[in-house]
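Reading group handout, session on sequence-to-structure problems. Before we discuss, look at one worked example. The prompt was deliberately terse, the way you'd type it at a terminal:

> structure Ig-like domain-containing protein

The input record follows.
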Amino acid sequence: MTISTSLPRLRMHLIACYCCDAIPEWQAVTPSLHQNVFVFESLNTWLPFGKLLPCYLPCPFFPTNLSYAQHLLQTLSSSNTCIVPPSQPVVSGPEKPIGENESIELSCTSNLGNPAGMIYWLKDKKLLYGKINPVDMKGKVRNTVRILVNRRDNGRHVECVVNQLTGVLRTNWTLQVEYRDLPKLEILKTSRNSSVREEQKFECRAKGRPRPSTPQWFHDGKSLSTGLTSGMSNFLVLSDLSLSDTGVYVCISRNELGESKATLNISPPRKLEQCSLIVRVRQLALLDWR
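And the output record:
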């Protein structure tokens, strides 16, 4: 594994090292210096917390053998000169959606690194005030926040942010809010063809809380028993389209709060319009002749 880092300002070389008790085995006897970048080849890829820790080293630094490099890294790892980046924040909360006007508790845990970064919550780019508690002796910190949600929060994101001199880490949590409302209906065309002789298929899909009834199709005030239902969907199938099949179709679904309607307008294809026009002209011509 090749490890390379660039140099910071103030004539301080930035090298890559492991801030842990076990010193890695270095493959290169003499670390190479190329354009002020030190490169080490490591045989041991194990890292505590899976992190590579950059350490500041005063200039100049020209190690000539393996033992000197190991000794220097060991000295740095036991001091406070190491700049340790924070770990990616981990957010936990309820897996199931919560009801409207209820509160949700979210926790965010991170190792804030060295020097310690700041951990905080954002919602719509506004700061949320949480409670910060230490988790263990390894520097992990938990920030817990409680949020009162409403239906407008459904699908919105809450952000846990860890801000440290090495950068900013963010983890999002999507709010899932269930609220009571009339059924919401959606009509989708599930067939591609629209010619006169080919089948057309439309799906009316319902969702909501409380659970809505399976949608029902109506045409000219009459209920259509298509027999094609699946869960919260009802399918309208039109084959060999005729003029009597055209017009407005209504899809209706109900729940405890009331009913909702969605409409579908079926226009006659051009061939049927032409046929209808010819019949109409012939009828007028026949009346004139009489």
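Points for discussion. First: The chain has three domains: 2-77, 90-178, 184-270. Second: The radius of gyration is 34 Å.
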